[in-house]
């Protein structure tokens, strides 16, 4: 049986919110920013982020699960890359919106 997702499900507010929660951690944003410069393996990302390997791997798993990145194995290394070029657009647009609304976002008491 083929699992078909209806347009109603894809546009459901709950699913959209979950999509954005995938970007809801500064470490995941930093990972994506680094990957926009080109594919990296876990060791390279650990060095760039200055975080433990386990934490980086957990964030990469989340990003992969949500479809932001894909991975492949080459020897002992697993390499990650941005899965969809629209991720660059998404981050660029968020930067443009923040340029005009940074103070308001920082002052928000609802989202910590």
Q: List how many beta strands DSSP finds.
A: 3
Tell the overall outline.
Answer: globular
User: What topology, given as strand order, has the largest sheet?
Assistant: 1-3-2
Mean pLDDT: 91
Strand count, sense and closure of the main sheet? Answer: 3 strands, antiparallel
Strand content: 5-15%
Which class of secondary structure composition applies to the elements?
alpha+beta
Instruction: Please work out how many helical segments DSSP would assign.
Output: 6
Considering DSSP H and I runs of 4 or more, what fraction of the residues is helical? 55-70%
Low-confidence stretches: none
Write down the secondary-structure element order.
HHHEHHEEH
Distance between the termini: 42 Å
Please compute the radius of gyration using only Cα atoms: 16 Å
Condensed summary:
By secondary structure, the protein is an alpha+beta fold. The protein is built from 6 helices and 3 strands; from the N terminus they run αααβααββα.
Description:
The protein is of the alpha+beta class and 112 residues long. It has six helices and three strands. It has a three-stranded antiparallel β-sheet. The chain is globular, with a radius of gyration of 16 Å.
Present the secondary structure layout.
Layout: H1 7-10, H2 13-21, H3 26-36, E1 40-41, H4 42-49, H5 53-65, E2 69-74, E3 77-82, H6 86-107
Antiparallel strand pairs: 1-3, 2-3
């Amino acid at each position: 049986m083929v699992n078909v997702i209806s347009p109603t499900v894809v546009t459901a507010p709950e699913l959209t919110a979950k999509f954005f929660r995938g970007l809801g951690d500064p470490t995941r944003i930093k990972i994506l920013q680094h990957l926009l410069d080109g594919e990296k393996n876990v060791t390279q990302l650990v060095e760039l982020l200055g975080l433990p390997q386990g934490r980086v791997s957990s964030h990469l798993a989340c990003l992969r699960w949500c479809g932001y990145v894909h991975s492949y194995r080459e020897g002992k290394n697993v390499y990650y890359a941005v899965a969809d070029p629209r991720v660059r657009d998404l981050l660029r647009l968020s930067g443009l919106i923040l340029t005009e609304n940074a103070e308001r976002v920082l002052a928000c008491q609802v989202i910590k």
